[in-house]
Backbone:
């Protein structure tokens, strides 16, 4: 990370806030993006406002609700608590990055659709990324492990039963996909 400096005017600053701007290179969903951001720009804001990846939602802004969850090097992280400048060098995956290469729904997304694991949808991106990472770690969770997997994310609409069913269904879909890949 470096502060861009113009030979005539010195360090570059944001015209509205006066904050120094930093050049950062973020790798998001396999694509490298060069940005110029203030040091205190949250990763969630960089994703939504600078990169236009609006699937990452911001709910509580305190890291409690999980709506902003993205994967950082494959592990769930709250994007509302991370600074964009601290994300340099990491592989960031947003909900947009969970689709298959052909653009079709990935197994976790498909399971949420099939099991009606969403209602208003605001919390859904955080659940999808959380479950994706959880199934990477535990590809065949018990019912109780599926419930624990989503324990850090809040939903005000669903009552969680269909979300737990979606976790269990996603595990099945992932196994079926893996079996199909081996055939």
Residues:
């Amino acid at each position: 990370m470096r502060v861009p400096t113009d030979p005539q005017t010195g360090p570059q600053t944001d015209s509205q806030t006066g904050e120094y701007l930093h050049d950062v290179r973020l790798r998001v969903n396999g694509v490298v993006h060069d940005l110029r951001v203030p040091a205190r720009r949250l990763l969630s804001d960089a994703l939504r406002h600078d990169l236009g990846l609006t699937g990452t939602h911001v709910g509580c802004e305190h890291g409690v609700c999980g709506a902003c969850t993205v994967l950082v090097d494959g592990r769930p992280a709250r994007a509302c608590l991370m600074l964009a400048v601290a994300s340099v060098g990491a592989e960031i995956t947003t909900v947009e990055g969970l689709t298959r290469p052909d653009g079709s729904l990935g197994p976790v997304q498909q399971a949420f659709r099939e099991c009606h694991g969403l209602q208003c949808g605001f919390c859904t991106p955080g659940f999808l990324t959380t479950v994706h990472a959880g199934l990477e770690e535990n590809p065949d969770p018990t019912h109780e492990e599926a419930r624990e997997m989503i324990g850090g994310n809040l939903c005000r609409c669903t009552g969680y039963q269909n979300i737990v069913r979606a976790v269990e269904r996603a595990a099945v879909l992932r196994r079926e996909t893996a079996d199909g890949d081996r055939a």
